[in-house]
Amino acid sequence: MTVKKALITGITGQDGSYLAELLLEKGYEVHGIIRRASTFNTQRLDHLYQDPHSPRARLFLHYGDLTDGTRLASLLETVQPDEVYHLAAQSHVRVSFDEPEFTGNTTGLGTTRLLEAIRSTGLPCRYYQASSSEMFGATPPPQHENTPFHPRSPYGVAKVYAYWTTRNYREAYGLYAVNGILFNHESPRRGPTFVTRKIATAAARIKAGLQDHLYLGNLDARRDWGYAAEYVHAMWLMLQHDQPDDYVIATGTSCSVRDFADHCFTHVGLDYRDHIRFDERYLRPSEVDHLVGDASKARRILGWQPTIHAPELARLMVDAEMAALPRPVRPADSAPETALTLTAG
Ligand code: NAP
Ligand code: F7E
Known about the structure:
Layout: E1 5-9, H1 14-25, E2 29-34, E3 59-63, H2 69-79, E4 83-86, H3 93-98, H4 100-121, E5 126-132, H5 154-173, E6 176-182, E7 185-186, H6 195-207, E8 214-216, E9 222-223, E10 226-227, H7 228-240, E11 247-249, E12 255-256, H8 257-267, E13 276-278, H9 296-302, H10 310-324, H11 331-334, H12 337-344
Parallel strand pairs: 1-2, 1-4, 2-3, 4-5, 5-6, 6-11, 7-10, 8-13
Antiparallel strand pairs: 9-12
Helix pairs in contact: 1-7, 2-4, 4-5, 6-8, 6-10, 8-10
NADP nicotinamide-adenine-dinucleotide phosphate binds near residues 10, 16, 87, 91 and 185.
């Protein structure tokens, strides 16, 4: 039996790590593109690491960057993937207002570079584009596949560009290319500056007496928050279908940032109102007020359905933060028995 090969851009990110896990479980050979950095950036993958010299190794990492189209093409030639999951992006909405040009270059044009590399190498691979509910922006909920886009940030604008580029390569060149329009999805592996992780971390640390307050911006924004481990399954399902198509992936429910904070703090027996303070630095020049996805197409055609909604998500994220807290150092933990005996003596 031939082993399927997948190439993942953004494998070091939240979704990349869950997707790599899923594909390895399914027996794939997984290749990931990572950026060269002066420090290691593979923490989310360390538990999956296999010595590439081992004959059993099925996870391979390669240096590359979305700004380097030549490298993307040479990697495709080398790896010859059956499936390409394009997850890499400058993915932080607030940061995209500070770095609009960089965000356009990576999140927008990076998609063109990768699709053009696939087209020019002529590989018959299937392509997944990480599209986002941020593309809907100001258009009121519920949002589905035919809802008009009205992005409210340079990030959202770049994702709209990437979405249409993906559709254009499907229509113009017959590429098997799909857009997964994913609503917010979170986990203990979420980047620390996204609001759910920021709140979950703070709730655990405040409970443990390690900090007193948490500074946030707009508490009234409402999001449709799901669990990342369930959402990567939808990405895989999209590439197994007979026809390439675009799908919304969401829970169909929403809550406000304030509600999410309430879930997290209540879980550890605290009142969020005693600990949250306002900092205008976390406001955005234009905000997305309300996102709720209608994922009925994915349920009907792919059989995908989420099981975890915001309240459970908040609890599982806070539990993970509590478990990861530094344990208080006791003498028995810090010193070997002989030293302890000497000190005691
Ligand atoms: P993430 O944790 O921020 O991960 C982003 C990944 O992209 C990281 O591996 C990062 O590498 C890589 N990357 C950034 N710039 C790059 C460049 N110039 N060249 C190569 N790699 C680069 O994002 P995520 O939450 O996993 O999301 C995955 C994708 O889905 C993103 O495209 C995001 O925009 C999109 N999306 C996310 C959500 C969500 O709620 N999570 C919803 C809809 C769509 P480093 O580790 O080196 O930084
Ligand atoms: O903000 C508000 C903020 O940064 C959520 C990305 O994965 O999902 C994500 O984008 C809400 C916003 O996620 C703080 O104003 C208040 O209304 O966690 P976030 P996001 O902007 O929704 C979409 C689908 C993506 O595609 C993106 O890649 O929370 N908020 N106070 C705050 N947000 C942050 N980050 N920090 C605060 O202190």
